[in-house]
Design brief:
globular, 2 domains, D-Maltodextrin-Binding Protein, domain 2, alpha+beta, 16 helices, about 425 residues
């Protein structure tokens, strides 16, 4: 689960993270102890699994160390680089996987004694692929996913004389619907034109392809795919259909509460966020739909990895198998935390067909399952985060009129290649 909206905890030195531990399990004097480093809200799913783990492994204490999302990943990056102060199990978010799967400090779960390859066909293929590095080593096992969905305000569309098909038929139709919506209701179609770029650059990719780099590490930024994505974002900005606010900001949340933002493309877990904290007063007004032009994409997802230096690898593997491969545990996290299961057996449970009251009774989980089974198994690159940052800045320059699309993409490619070469271990 991706929860960057959660308030940051007190800043800590990256290597001092072990000083803050919450013990869950048996008594303090237990003979065996596992330490798990994680972050909110993924820590809640872990706690749901502890009773079952305690029944299987009585006498084992599990120490949960939970830091804010960014702090956690910074701490784990530093700890792996230093080869010190490492836990037995590390939680990782999809947004950071390109870097972590290349780490020599994480166990290859496809090799003995783990042999995780035998489980490959039981797990959503796009999530499984995200745990693998370019060499084919499985460095992390997925525990939840975020199949993409278009959440939209049914009531605002109705007031503008629009229907769901006006949003999903084509990207041009999506922007045109935004103009009509704005004229009739005053609401913006999307929070930010950057959101359209994020989904458009991932549309049409096939298994094994990368978003920002090809298999040989060459930048893909200056290609027709990025050209189309930038043009779409520019079109939306010029049409006046984006609110010009960033996701996970107070302005973004207020836009939902005040009927100022009518749609949001994001992972299926957004429905739970809208219900519980973003806009609880809008219950019954939202619906979920497929992405425009049948695009298939996922937002976020959670993984766990075992450090090479773990002193309790066998027990860490047992806990990881429970979190990732146990049907009842996957469903418990889905019911309680809106964490969409990666285990295919859990995706066939009757729970998915149940109506969702917040979405006016729509059985949207079935739609999300369809999306989860269509998302391509993309190849990640350790420099994806670098490229993503550069591309965001490049598009901002287009949106404010400082650069034309072609020039912005050419400059972005040059910047990415320069930054990649300068980094330790960077490409030559």
């Amino acid at each position: 689960m991706t929860d960057p909206h959660l308030p940051a905890l007190r800043r800590r030195d990256a290597l001092a993270w072990l000083s803050c531990t919450a013990v869950a399990g048996s008594a303090h004097g237990a003979a065996a102890r596992l330490t798990v480093a994680t972050y909110p809200d993924l820590d809640r799913a872990l706690k749901l699994a502890l009773p079952a783990f305690a029944r299987r492994h009585p006498g084992v204490a599990v120490n949960i160390v939970s830091l804010a999302h960014k702090d956690h990943h910074t701490a784990m990056t530093t700890a792996l680089a230093a080869g010190a102060a490492l836990p037995d199990l590390i939680a990782l978010d999809m947004d950071f996987m390109g870097k972590f799967v290349e780490s020599a400090g994480l166990e290859d779960l496809s090799r003995p004694p783990y042999g995780a390859q035998r489980y490959r066909d039981r797990v959503a293929r796009f999530a499984w692929q995200a745990g693998m590095n370019r060499a084919g080593a499985l460095k992390a096992l997925p525990v939840d996913a975020g199949p993409g969905a278009l959440f939209y305000r049914h009531d605002l569309l109705a007031r503008a004389g629009l229907a769901e098909a006006d949003l999903t038929g084509s990207w041009d139709g999506f922007v045109a619907a935004g103009r009509q919506l704005r004229a009739a209701t005053g609401a913006c179609l999307v929070a930010n034109a950057q959101d359209l770029k994020d989904i458009r650059i991932r549309a049409g990719l096939a298994d094994g392809e990368g978003v920002f780099f090809d298999a040989d590490g060459r930048s893909l930024v200056q290609t027709p795919r990025f050209q189309r994505a930038f043009e779409l974002a520019r079109q939306a900005r010029e049409a006046g259909v984006d609110a010009r606010v960033r996701v996970w900001t107070n302005e973004w949340a207020e836009g939902f509460r005040r009927d100022a933002i009518a749609t949001q493309m994001m992972g299926s877990w957004l429905g739970g966020h809208l219900k519980h904290w973003l806009a609880p007063g809008t219950a019954g007004r939202w619906r979920a739909a497929a992405l425009p032009e049948g695009a298939a994409a996922a937002w976020g997802g959670s993984f766990y990895a075992i450090p090479v230096q773990s002193g309790n690898k066998a027990l860490a593997w047992e806990l990881l198998r429970l979190l990732a491969l146990d049907r009842e545990q996957q469903l418990a996290a889905f019911r309680g935390l809106d964490a969409f299961p990666v285990l295919l057996a859990a995706q066939d449970d009757g729970f998915l067909a149940e109506p969702i009251p917040f979405l006016a009774g729509q059985p949207a989980r079935l739609q999300w399952r369809d999306m989860a089974r269509r998302v391509p198994a993309l190849a990640l690159d350790r420099y994806d985060a670098v490229a993503d940052e550069v591309v965001k800045v490049a598009l901002d320059e287009v949106l404010v009129g400082r650069k034309r699309v072609a020039q912005a993409l050419a400059d972005a490619r040059a910047t990415i290649e320069r930054r990649v070469r300068r980094r330790p271990g960077g490409r030559q």
